[in-house]
Amino acid sequence: MKIVVIGSVAAGTSVAAKARRNTEEAEIVVYDQGKDISYSVCGIPYHIGGEVEELSALTPRNAAWFKKRYNVSVFTEHKVTHVDQANKQLEVTDLVSGEKKLENYDVLVFATGASPFTPPPFNQKEYDNVFQVRNIQDARDIGAYSAKQPKKALIIGAGFIGLEMTEQLIHKGLEVTIVQLEDQVMPPMDADMTFRVEEHMRAKGVNLILSDTVKTIEGETSVERVITTNGVTIEPDIVILAAGVRPNTELAKEMGVELGASRAIAVNNKMQTNLPDVYAVGDVAESFSVITGKPIYRPLGSTANKMGRIAGDVITGGDLEHRGVLGTGIFRIFDLHVGQTGLTEKEAKKEGYDVEILYNIKPDHAEYLGGKELTIKALADKETGRILGAQAIGQGGVDKRIDVIATAITFKAKAEDLFHLDLAYAPPFATTKDPVLYTGMALDNALKRNPLLTPAELIRRQNSGETLQIIDTRSKKDFDKSHVKGAIHVPLGELRSSNAELDKDVVTVTYCNKGVTGNASQNLLLNYGFKKVYNLSGGNKNYQSYLKMLAQK
Protein backbone atom coordinates (compact mmCIF):
# COMPACT_ATOMS: atom_id res chain seq x y z
CA MET A 1 0.00 0.00 0.00
CA LYS A 2 1.25 3.44 -0.92
CA ILE A 3 0.00 6.38 1.15
CA VAL A 4 0.52 9.88 -0.23
CA VAL A 5 -0.09 12.87 2.02
CA ILE A 6 -0.36 16.40 0.65
CA GLY A 7 0.77 18.76 3.40
CA SER A 8 3.36 18.36 6.14
CA VAL A 9 2.48 20.55 9.10
CA ALA A 10 0.55 19.29 12.15
CA ALA A 11 -2.03 17.06 10.46
CA GLY A 12 0.01 15.65 7.59
CA THR A 13 2.97 14.54 9.67
CA SER A 14 0.59 13.03 12.26
CA VAL A 15 -0.98 10.89 9.51
CA ALA A 16 2.43 9.64 8.43
CA ALA A 17 3.71 8.99 11.94
CA LYS A 18 0.63 7.06 13.10
CA ALA A 19 0.44 5.03 9.88
CA ARG A 20 4.07 4.03 10.28
CA ARG A 21 3.57 3.10 13.93
CA ASN A 22 0.82 0.72 12.81
CA THR A 23 2.68 -0.90 9.92
CA GLU A 24 6.12 -1.22 8.37
CA GLU A 25 4.73 -2.49 5.09
CA ALA A 26 3.23 0.71 3.69
CA GLU A 27 5.19 3.15 1.56
CA ILE A 28 4.50 6.66 2.89
CA VAL A 29 5.25 9.82 0.93
CA VAL A 30 4.53 13.42 1.95
CA TYR A 31 4.58 16.47 -0.35
CA ASP A 32 4.59 20.08 0.76
CA GLN A 33 5.01 23.23 -1.31
CA GLY A 34 6.66 25.04 1.62
CA LYS A 35 10.21 24.83 2.89
CA ASP A 36 9.44 23.75 6.45
CA ILE A 37 7.55 20.83 7.98
CA SER A 38 5.90 19.98 11.29
CA TYR A 39 6.27 23.51 12.65
CA SER A 40 4.33 25.41 15.30
CA VAL A 41 2.17 28.02 13.60
CA CYS A 42 0.83 29.09 17.00
CA GLY A 43 4.33 29.87 18.24
CA ILE A 44 5.18 32.34 15.47
CA PRO A 45 3.89 35.52 17.20
CA TYR A 46 6.01 34.70 20.24
CA HIS A 47 9.15 34.42 18.14
CA ILE A 48 8.36 37.73 16.44
CA GLY A 49 7.92 39.30 19.88
CA GLY A 50 11.14 37.81 21.22
CA GLU A 51 9.73 35.38 23.79
CA VAL A 52 10.98 32.50 21.61
CA GLU A 53 14.55 33.45 20.82
CA GLU A 54 15.41 30.92 18.11
CA LEU A 55 13.11 30.25 15.17
CA SER A 56 14.53 26.73 15.07
CA ALA A 57 12.62 26.03 18.30
CA LEU A 58 9.42 26.13 16.22
CA THR A 59 10.82 23.74 13.60
CA PRO A 60 12.24 20.84 15.63
CA ARG A 61 11.93 18.29 12.80
CA ASN A 62 12.93 18.21 9.14
CA ALA A 63 12.58 15.82 6.22
CA ALA A 64 15.79 13.97 7.09
CA TRP A 65 14.60 13.41 10.67
CA PHE A 66 11.31 11.94 9.42
CA LYS A 67 13.09 9.65 7.01
CA LYS A 68 15.38 8.33 9.74
CA ARG A 69 12.74 8.06 12.45
CA TYR A 70 9.74 6.81 10.48
CA ASN A 71 11.07 5.85 7.05
CA VAL A 72 8.72 8.45 5.58
CA SER A 73 9.82 10.32 2.45
CA VAL A 74 9.02 14.03 2.82
CA PHE A 75 9.48 16.27 -0.21
CA THR A 76 9.42 19.99 0.55
CA GLU A 77 9.02 22.66 -2.13
CA HIS A 78 7.01 20.17 -4.18
CA LYS A 79 3.51 21.11 -5.27
CA VAL A 80 0.81 18.63 -6.26
CA THR A 81 -0.87 20.32 -9.22
CA HIS A 82 -3.32 17.68 -10.43
CA VAL A 83 -4.98 14.49 -9.22
CA ASP A 84 -6.27 11.77 -11.55
CA GLN A 85 -8.62 9.93 -9.22
CA ALA A 86 -9.63 7.31 -11.80
CA ASN A 87 -6.03 6.16 -12.23
CA LYS A 88 -4.92 7.14 -8.70
CA GLN A 89 -2.12 9.29 -10.02
CA LEU A 90 -0.71 12.69 -9.03
CA GLU A 91 1.14 15.33 -11.02
CA VAL A 92 3.86 16.86 -8.86
CA THR A 93 5.99 19.93 -9.65
CA ASP A 94 9.41 20.51 -8.10
CA LEU A 95 9.20 24.23 -7.29
CA VAL A 96 13.01 24.59 -7.27
CA SER A 97 13.89 22.86 -10.54
CA GLY A 98 10.53 23.19 -12.31
CA GLU A 99 10.56 19.49 -13.16
CA LYS A 100 7.28 17.56 -13.17
CA LYS A 101 6.67 13.93 -12.34
CA LEU A 102 3.79 11.49 -11.97
CA GLU A 103 3.22 9.73 -8.66
CA ASN A 104 0.89 6.79 -8.05
CA TYR A 105 -1.00 6.23 -4.81
CA ASP A 106 -3.35 3.77 -3.17
CA VAL A 107 -4.56 6.15 -0.47
CA LEU A 108 -4.51 9.95 -0.71
CA VAL A 109 -4.72 12.33 2.25
CA PHE A 110 -5.42 16.03 1.94
CA ALA A 111 -3.63 17.92 4.71
CA THR A 112 -3.35 21.11 2.68
CA GLY A 113 -4.27 23.37 5.59
CA ALA A 114 -5.65 26.86 5.22
CA SER A 115 -4.36 30.13 3.81
CA PRO A 116 -4.69 33.54 5.40
CA PHE A 117 -7.42 35.70 3.90
CA THR A 118 -6.23 38.88 2.21
CA PRO A 119 -9.01 41.46 2.57
CA PRO A 120 -9.55 44.29 0.09
CA PRO A 121 -7.93 46.62 -0.74
CA PHE A 122 -4.74 44.74 0.26
CA ASN A 123 -5.55 42.05 -2.29
CA GLN A 124 -5.12 44.49 -5.17
CA LYS A 125 -1.37 45.02 -4.90
CA GLU A 126 1.71 43.75 -3.09
CA TYR A 127 3.52 45.95 -0.59
CA ASP A 128 6.89 45.34 1.03
CA ASN A 129 5.65 46.22 4.54
CA VAL A 130 2.50 44.06 4.55
CA PHE A 131 2.77 40.61 6.13
CA GLN A 132 0.70 37.65 7.22
CA VAL A 133 1.42 35.19 10.02
CA ARG A 134 0.85 31.66 8.82
CA ASN A 135 4.15 29.87 8.22
CA ILE A 136 7.83 29.92 9.12
CA GLN A 137 8.73 31.93 6.03
CA ASP A 138 6.34 34.65 7.21
CA ALA A 139 8.27 34.75 10.49
CA ARG A 140 11.56 35.07 8.60
CA ASP A 141 10.17 37.87 6.44
CA ILE A 142 8.82 39.85 9.40
CA GLY A 143 12.08 39.33 11.24
CA ALA A 144 14.06 40.68 8.30
CA TYR A 145 11.80 43.71 7.97
CA SER A 146 12.08 44.40 11.72
CA ALA A 147 15.70 45.39 11.08
CA LYS A 148 14.26 48.65 9.71
CA GLN A 149 12.95 49.28 13.25
CA PRO A 150 9.31 50.09 12.48
CA LYS A 151 7.60 52.22 15.13
CA LYS A 152 3.92 51.98 14.22
CA ALA A 153 2.01 48.81 13.38
CA LEU A 154 -1.42 48.35 11.85
CA ILE A 155 -3.12 45.00 12.46
CA ILE A 156 -6.15 44.03 10.40
CA GLY A 157 -8.31 41.62 12.40
CA ALA A 158 -8.82 40.89 16.10
CA GLY A 159 -8.94 37.11 16.27
CA PHE A 160 -6.31 34.86 17.87
CA ILE A 161 -3.42 35.90 15.62
CA GLY A 162 -4.36 39.58 15.63
CA LEU A 163 -4.48 39.78 19.41
CA GLU A 164 -1.36 37.69 19.94
CA MET A 165 0.56 39.87 17.49
CA THR A 166 -0.79 42.98 19.24
CA GLU A 167 0.60 41.81 22.54
CA GLN A 168 3.98 40.91 21.08
CA LEU A 169 4.44 44.12 19.08
CA ILE A 170 3.49 46.25 22.10
CA HIS A 171 6.14 44.33 24.06
CA LYS A 172 8.65 45.24 21.34
CA GLY A 173 7.81 48.92 21.81
CA LEU A 174 5.66 49.53 18.74
CA GLU A 175 2.51 51.61 18.70
CA VAL A 176 -0.30 49.31 17.62
CA THR A 177 -3.59 50.11 15.91
CA ILE A 178 -6.15 47.38 15.24
CA VAL A 179 -8.90 47.74 12.64
CA GLN A 180 -11.67 45.17 13.09
CA LEU A 181 -14.67 44.68 10.81
CA GLU A 182 -16.97 43.45 13.58
CA ASP A 183 -18.03 45.54 16.58
CA GLN A 184 -15.99 43.40 18.99
CA VAL A 185 -12.68 41.61 19.28
CA MET A 186 -12.81 37.79 19.12
CA PRO A 187 -16.17 37.49 17.32
CA PRO A 188 -16.56 33.79 18.26
CA MET A 189 -17.11 34.92 21.87
CA ASP A 190 -19.97 36.91 23.42
CA ALA A 191 -19.58 40.67 23.21
CA ASP A 192 -20.23 41.25 26.93
CA MET A 193 -17.17 39.14 27.73
CA THR A 194 -14.86 40.48 25.02
CA PHE A 195 -15.68 44.02 26.12
CA ARG A 196 -13.53 43.31 29.18
CA VAL A 197 -10.70 42.39 26.82
CA GLU A 198 -11.20 45.58 24.82
CA GLU A 199 -10.98 47.72 27.96
CA HIS A 200 -7.79 45.93 28.98
CA MET A 201 -6.24 46.46 25.56
CA ARG A 202 -7.03 50.16 25.54
CA ALA A 203 -5.55 50.47 29.04
CA LYS A 204 -2.34 48.97 27.65
CA GLY A 205 -2.17 51.60 24.92
CA VAL A 206 -3.72 49.76 21.97
CA ASN A 207 -5.64 51.96 19.51
CA LEU A 208 -8.67 49.77 18.87
CA ILE A 209 -10.92 50.68 15.94
CA LEU A 210 -14.06 48.53 15.71
CA SER A 211 -16.83 48.32 13.11
CA ASP A 212 -14.50 49.65 10.44
CA THR A 213 -12.39 48.55 7.48
CA VAL A 214 -9.54 49.94 5.42
CA LYS A 215 -11.02 51.63 2.35
CA THR A 216 -8.01 53.14 0.58
CA ILE A 217 -4.24 52.69 0.62
CA GLU A 218 -1.67 55.33 -0.23
CA GLY A 219 1.86 54.39 -1.24
CA GLU A 220 3.55 52.70 -4.17
CA THR A 221 5.89 50.00 -2.90
CA SER A 222 5.02 50.41 0.79
CA VAL A 223 1.79 51.18 2.62
CA GLU A 224 2.40 54.74 3.76
CA ARG A 225 -1.11 55.69 4.77
CA VAL A 226 -4.55 54.06 4.97
CA ILE A 227 -7.95 55.66 5.29
CA THR A 228 -10.79 53.65 6.79
CA THR A 229 -14.40 53.53 5.69
CA ASN A 230 -15.28 55.76 8.63
CA GLY A 231 -12.61 58.31 7.67
CA VAL A 232 -9.84 57.43 10.12
CA THR A 233 -6.31 58.05 8.78
CA ILE A 234 -3.51 55.72 9.91
CA GLU A 235 0.17 55.94 8.94
CA PRO A 236 1.79 52.57 9.70
CA ASP A 237 5.37 51.43 9.25
CA ILE A 238 4.31 47.76 9.15
CA VAL A 239 0.98 46.07 8.46
CA ILE A 240 -0.07 42.63 9.72
CA LEU A 241 -3.06 41.00 8.02
CA ALA A 242 -4.86 38.73 10.49
CA ALA A 243 -8.34 38.59 8.99
CA GLY A 244 -8.85 34.85 9.31
CA VAL A 245 -8.09 31.85 7.12
CA ARG A 246 -9.74 29.93 4.31
CA PRO A 247 -9.28 26.15 3.79
CA ASN A 248 -7.11 25.19 0.81
CA THR A 249 -9.67 23.10 -1.06
CA GLU A 250 -8.96 23.97 -4.71
CA LEU A 251 -7.15 20.75 -5.60
CA ALA A 252 -9.70 18.62 -3.76
CA LYS A 253 -12.63 20.35 -5.48
CA GLU A 254 -11.06 19.77 -8.90
CA MET A 255 -11.11 16.00 -8.35
CA GLY A 256 -14.68 15.93 -7.02
CA VAL A 257 -14.22 15.97 -3.26
CA GLU A 258 -17.33 17.39 -1.60
CA LEU A 259 -17.19 20.45 0.63
CA GLY A 260 -19.33 20.94 3.72
CA ALA A 261 -21.47 23.85 4.84
CA SER A 262 -18.38 25.61 6.20
CA ARG A 263 -16.68 25.33 2.77
CA ALA A 264 -14.04 23.03 4.23
CA ILE A 265 -13.83 19.41 3.07
CA ALA A 266 -16.69 17.29 4.40
CA VAL A 267 -15.51 14.14 6.17
CA ASN A 268 -17.05 11.40 8.30
CA ASN A 269 -15.79 10.43 11.75
CA LYS A 270 -13.01 8.36 10.14
CA MET A 271 -11.78 11.42 8.20
CA GLN A 272 -12.95 9.88 4.92
CA THR A 273 -14.27 12.08 2.10
CA ASN A 274 -16.99 11.17 -0.38
CA LEU A 275 -14.37 9.57 -2.66
CA PRO A 276 -12.96 6.10 -1.91
CA ASP A 277 -9.44 6.03 -0.45
CA VAL A 278 -9.37 9.83 -0.12
CA TYR A 279 -9.09 11.42 3.33
CA ALA A 280 -8.89 14.98 4.64
CA VAL A 281 -7.41 16.20 7.94
CA GLY A 282 -6.46 19.39 9.72
CA ASP A 283 -7.35 22.93 8.73
CA VAL A 284 -8.68 21.86 5.32
CA ALA A 285 -11.27 19.55 6.89
CA GLU A 286 -14.58 20.19 8.55
CA SER A 287 -15.26 18.98 12.09
CA PHE A 288 -18.52 18.69 14.00
CA SER A 289 -19.88 19.92 17.32
CA VAL A 290 -19.88 17.55 20.29
CA ILE A 291 -23.04 19.31 21.50
CA THR A 292 -25.18 19.74 18.38
CA GLY A 293 -23.61 17.16 16.08
CA LYS A 294 -23.64 19.75 13.31
CA PRO A 295 -20.61 20.52 11.10
CA ILE A 296 -18.33 23.32 12.28
CA TYR A 297 -14.97 24.68 11.21
CA ARG A 298 -12.44 25.28 14.00
CA PRO A 299 -8.89 25.31 12.57
CA LEU A 300 -6.56 24.65 15.51
CA GLY A 301 -3.28 22.78 15.77
CA SER A 302 -4.58 20.51 18.52
CA THR A 303 -7.51 19.37 16.36
CA ALA A 304 -5.23 18.95 13.33
CA ASN A 305 -2.94 16.60 15.25
CA LYS A 306 -5.92 14.59 16.46
CA MET A 307 -7.43 14.31 12.97
CA GLY A 308 -4.09 13.23 11.51
CA ARG A 309 -3.64 10.48 14.07
CA ILE A 310 -7.18 9.19 13.44
CA ALA A 311 -6.72 9.09 9.67
CA GLY A 312 -3.31 7.39 9.94
CA ASP A 313 -4.86 4.73 12.17
CA VAL A 314 -7.93 4.12 9.99
CA ILE A 315 -5.87 3.87 6.79
CA THR A 316 -3.75 1.10 8.34
CA GLY A 317 -6.65 -0.91 9.72
CA GLY A 318 -7.29 0.81 13.04
CA ASP A 319 -10.67 1.74 14.53
CA LEU A 320 -10.12 5.29 15.82
CA GLU A 321 -12.95 7.75 15.21
CA HIS A 322 -13.19 11.52 15.45
CA ARG A 323 -15.52 12.47 18.29
CA GLY A 324 -16.01 16.12 17.38
CA VAL A 325 -14.87 19.36 19.01
CA LEU A 326 -16.23 22.00 21.35
CA GLY A 327 -14.39 24.92 19.82
CA THR A 328 -12.27 25.17 22.96
CA GLY A 329 -9.67 27.92 22.72
CA ILE A 330 -7.52 30.20 24.84
CA PHE A 331 -5.22 33.16 24.33
CA ARG A 332 -3.20 35.62 26.36
CA ILE A 333 -3.41 39.37 25.89
CA PHE A 334 -0.82 41.03 28.12
CA ASP A 335 -1.56 39.81 31.67
CA LEU A 336 -5.10 38.69 30.85
CA HIS A 337 -5.99 35.11 29.92
CA VAL A 338 -9.14 34.47 27.89
CA GLY A 339 -10.68 31.06 27.23
CA GLN A 340 -13.88 29.50 25.94
CA THR A 341 -15.47 26.12 25.31
CA GLY A 342 -18.78 24.89 23.97
CA LEU A 343 -21.59 27.16 22.84
CA THR A 344 -21.70 30.90 23.46
CA GLU A 345 -24.95 32.58 24.44
CA LYS A 346 -25.59 33.74 20.88
CA GLU A 347 -24.84 30.27 19.48
CA ALA A 348 -26.99 28.48 22.04
CA LYS A 349 -29.98 30.71 21.35
CA LYS A 350 -29.50 30.31 17.61
CA GLU A 351 -29.62 26.54 18.12
CA GLY A 352 -32.94 26.93 19.94
CA TYR A 353 -31.80 26.29 23.50
CA ASP A 354 -33.55 28.03 26.39
CA VAL A 355 -30.50 28.82 28.51
CA GLU A 356 -29.79 29.78 32.09
CA ILE A 357 -26.83 32.17 32.14
CA LEU A 358 -24.47 32.70 35.06
CA TYR A 359 -21.76 35.31 35.50
CA ASN A 360 -19.51 34.02 38.24
CA ILE A 361 -16.96 36.56 39.53
CA LYS A 362 -14.57 34.99 42.03
CA PRO A 363 -10.82 34.89 42.79
CA ASP A 364 -8.93 32.16 40.96
CA HIS A 365 -7.33 31.08 44.22
CA ALA A 366 -7.17 32.30 47.83
CA GLU A 367 -6.98 36.10 47.91
CA TYR A 368 -4.62 36.02 50.90
CA LEU A 369 -2.12 34.30 48.59
CA GLY A 370 -2.57 36.73 45.73
CA GLY A 371 -5.68 35.34 44.07
CA LYS A 372 -6.96 37.59 41.27
CA GLU A 373 -10.46 38.08 39.95
CA LEU A 374 -11.73 35.46 37.51
CA THR A 375 -14.96 35.97 35.56
CA ILE A 376 -16.77 32.93 34.20
CA LYS A 377 -19.83 33.13 31.98
CA ALA A 378 -21.47 29.72 31.89
CA LEU A 379 -24.59 28.38 30.18
CA ALA A 380 -26.91 25.49 30.99
CA ASP A 381 -29.90 24.13 29.11
CA LYS A 382 -33.03 24.84 31.18
CA GLU A 383 -34.77 21.70 29.92
CA THR A 384 -32.07 19.15 30.72
CA GLY A 385 -29.68 21.00 33.02
CA ARG A 386 -26.77 20.11 30.71
CA ILE A 387 -23.80 22.46 30.63
CA LEU A 388 -23.57 23.97 27.15
CA GLY A 389 -20.60 26.29 27.29
CA ALA A 390 -18.37 28.64 29.23
CA GLN A 391 -16.13 31.65 28.71
CA ALA A 392 -13.56 32.81 31.26
CA ILE A 393 -11.35 35.85 31.70
CA GLY A 394 -8.74 36.45 34.39
CA GLN A 395 -5.08 36.76 35.22
CA GLY A 396 -4.69 33.13 36.24
CA GLY A 397 -6.49 29.81 36.42
CA VAL A 398 -8.46 30.30 33.19
CA ASP A 399 -6.96 27.28 31.41
CA LYS A 400 -7.69 24.98 34.33
CA ARG A 401 -11.35 25.98 34.59
CA ILE A 402 -12.03 25.92 30.87
CA ASP A 403 -10.42 22.50 30.52
CA VAL A 404 -12.45 21.08 33.42
CA ILE A 405 -15.70 22.44 31.96
CA ALA A 406 -14.75 21.21 28.46
CA THR A 407 -14.28 17.73 29.90
CA ALA A 408 -17.60 17.94 31.71
CA ILE A 409 -19.45 19.05 28.56
CA THR A 410 -17.86 16.24 26.56
CA PHE A 411 -19.35 13.71 28.96
CA LYS A 412 -22.75 15.49 28.97
CA ALA A 413 -22.48 16.72 32.55
CA LYS A 414 -25.31 18.68 34.11
CA ALA A 415 -24.87 21.82 36.19
CA GLU A 416 -25.28 19.82 39.41
CA ASP A 417 -22.44 17.50 38.33
CA LEU A 418 -19.95 20.36 38.29
CA PHE A 419 -20.59 21.06 41.96
CA HIS A 420 -19.86 17.45 42.90
CA LEU A 421 -16.50 17.25 41.14
CA ASP A 422 -13.65 16.41 43.49
CA LEU A 423 -11.19 19.05 42.31
CA ALA A 424 -7.73 19.72 43.72
CA TYR A 425 -7.71 22.31 46.48
CA ALA A 426 -4.98 24.17 48.29
CA PRO A 427 -4.89 27.96 48.83
CA PRO A 428 -2.17 28.62 46.21
CA PHE A 429 -4.27 26.90 43.53
CA ALA A 430 -7.98 27.32 44.29
CA THR A 431 -10.59 28.50 46.74
CA THR A 432 -12.44 26.03 48.99
CA LYS A 433 -15.41 26.39 46.68
CA ASP A 434 -13.55 26.40 43.39
CA PRO A 435 -14.96 28.68 40.66
CA VAL A 436 -15.97 25.54 38.73
CA LEU A 437 -17.82 24.14 41.75
CA TYR A 438 -19.51 27.48 42.39
CA THR A 439 -20.49 27.71 38.73
CA GLY A 440 -22.20 24.33 38.96
CA MET A 441 -23.86 25.13 42.28
CA ALA A 442 -25.20 28.52 41.19
CA LEU A 443 -26.44 27.24 37.83
CA ASP A 444 -28.14 24.27 39.47
CA ASN A 445 -29.81 26.59 41.98
CA ALA A 446 -30.94 28.83 39.14
CA LEU A 447 -32.45 25.92 37.26
CA LYS A 448 -34.38 24.69 40.30
CA ARG A 449 -35.26 27.57 42.64
CA ASN A 450 -33.11 30.69 42.28
CA PRO A 451 -33.47 32.06 38.75
CA LEU A 452 -30.87 34.45 37.40
CA LEU A 453 -31.35 37.57 35.33
CA THR A 454 -28.64 38.90 33.02
CA PRO A 455 -28.04 42.64 32.67
CA ALA A 456 -29.24 42.40 29.06
CA GLU A 457 -32.52 40.77 30.06
CA LEU A 458 -33.07 43.23 32.92
CA ILE A 459 -32.62 46.21 30.61
CA ARG A 460 -34.86 44.60 27.99
CA ARG A 461 -37.63 44.13 30.54
CA GLN A 462 -37.29 47.66 31.83
CA ASN A 463 -37.40 49.07 28.31
CA SER A 464 -40.55 47.05 27.58
CA GLY A 465 -42.29 48.75 30.48
CA GLU A 466 -42.48 45.73 32.79
CA THR A 467 -42.96 46.60 36.47
CA LEU A 468 -39.96 45.38 38.45
CA GLN A 469 -39.05 45.70 42.12
CA ILE A 470 -35.27 46.04 42.13
CA ILE A 471 -33.44 45.83 45.45
CA ASP A 472 -29.83 46.87 45.99
CA THR A 473 -28.62 44.90 49.03
CA ARG A 474 -25.18 46.54 49.33
CA SER A 475 -23.91 49.28 51.62
CA LYS A 476 -25.16 52.85 51.26
CA LYS A 477 -21.70 53.90 50.11
CA ASP A 478 -21.72 51.38 47.25
CA PHE A 479 -25.29 52.29 46.32
CA ASP A 480 -24.47 55.99 46.11
CA LYS A 481 -21.43 55.27 43.94
CA SER A 482 -23.44 53.40 41.27
CA HIS A 483 -26.58 51.33 41.13
CA VAL A 484 -29.09 49.74 38.80
CA LYS A 485 -31.62 52.09 37.26
CA GLY A 486 -34.81 52.13 39.36
CA ALA A 487 -33.30 50.25 42.29
CA ILE A 488 -34.19 50.92 45.93
CA HIS A 489 -31.62 50.48 48.67
CA VAL A 490 -32.35 47.81 51.30
CA PRO A 491 -29.19 46.25 52.78
CA LEU A 492 -29.34 42.52 53.45
CA GLY A 493 -29.08 43.14 57.20
CA GLU A 494 -32.32 45.15 57.11
CA LEU A 495 -34.24 43.00 54.63
CA ARG A 496 -35.73 40.65 57.22
CA SER A 497 -37.26 43.48 59.19
CA SER A 498 -38.35 45.63 56.25
CA ASN A 499 -39.47 43.13 53.62
CA ALA A 500 -43.08 43.57 54.72
CA GLU A 501 -42.93 47.02 53.12
CA LEU A 502 -42.25 45.40 49.73
CA ASP A 503 -44.79 43.91 47.32
CA LYS A 504 -44.62 40.12 47.31
CA ASP A 505 -46.62 39.87 44.09
CA VAL A 506 -44.36 42.05 41.92
CA VAL A 507 -41.45 40.47 40.06
CA THR A 508 -38.42 41.25 42.23
CA VAL A 509 -34.73 41.50 41.35
CA THR A 510 -32.04 41.44 44.03
CA TYR A 511 -28.39 42.27 43.52
CA CYS A 512 -25.11 43.06 45.25
CA ASN A 513 -21.60 43.76 43.94
CA LYS A 514 -20.94 40.39 42.31
CA GLY A 515 -23.83 38.07 43.15
CA VAL A 516 -23.35 36.28 46.48
CA THR A 517 -25.24 38.68 48.75
CA GLY A 518 -27.85 39.11 46.06
CA ASN A 519 -28.41 35.35 46.16
CA ALA A 520 -28.74 35.42 49.96
CA SER A 521 -31.33 38.18 49.64
CA GLN A 522 -33.14 36.21 46.95
CA ASN A 523 -33.39 33.19 49.25
CA LEU A 524 -34.65 35.34 52.10
CA LEU A 525 -37.45 36.86 50.03
CA LEU A 526 -38.46 33.50 48.58
CA ASN A 527 -38.66 32.12 52.11
CA TYR A 528 -40.92 35.05 53.06
CA GLY A 529 -43.33 34.17 50.27
CA PHE A 530 -42.31 36.46 47.44
CA LYS A 531 -43.68 34.90 44.25
CA LYS A 532 -40.92 35.58 41.71
CA VAL A 533 -37.44 36.69 42.69
CA TYR A 534 -34.43 36.92 40.37
CA ASN A 535 -30.81 37.50 41.29
CA LEU A 536 -28.94 39.82 38.92
CA SER A 537 -26.15 37.61 37.59
CA GLY A 538 -22.70 39.07 38.24
CA GLY A 539 -24.22 41.82 40.35
CA ASN A 540 -23.76 45.54 39.90
CA LYS A 541 -20.20 45.09 38.64
CA ASN A 542 -21.40 43.05 35.68
CA TYR A 543 -24.34 45.40 35.11
CA GLN A 544 -22.15 48.51 35.00
CA SER A 545 -19.76 46.79 32.59
CA TYR A 546 -22.69 45.97 30.33
CA LEU A 547 -23.96 49.57 30.44
CA LYS A 548 -20.50 50.81 29.54
CA MET A 549 -20.34 48.40 26.61
CA LEU A 550 -23.71 49.62 25.30
CA ALA A 551 -22.53 53.22 25.53
CA GLN A 552 -19.41 52.50 23.47
CA LYS A 553 -20.92 50.26 20.76
Automatic annotation (TrEMBL):
The keyword Oxidoreductase applies. Its cofactor is FAD. Residues 464-548 form the Rhodanese domain. Keywords: FAD, Flavoprotein, Oxidation, Oxidoreductase, Redox-active center. One of its GO terms (molecular function) is oxidoreductase activity. SMART domains: RHOD (SM00450). Belongs to the class-III pyridine nucleotide-disulfide oxidoreductase family. This is NADPH-dependent 2,4-dienoyl-CoA reductase, sulfur reductase.
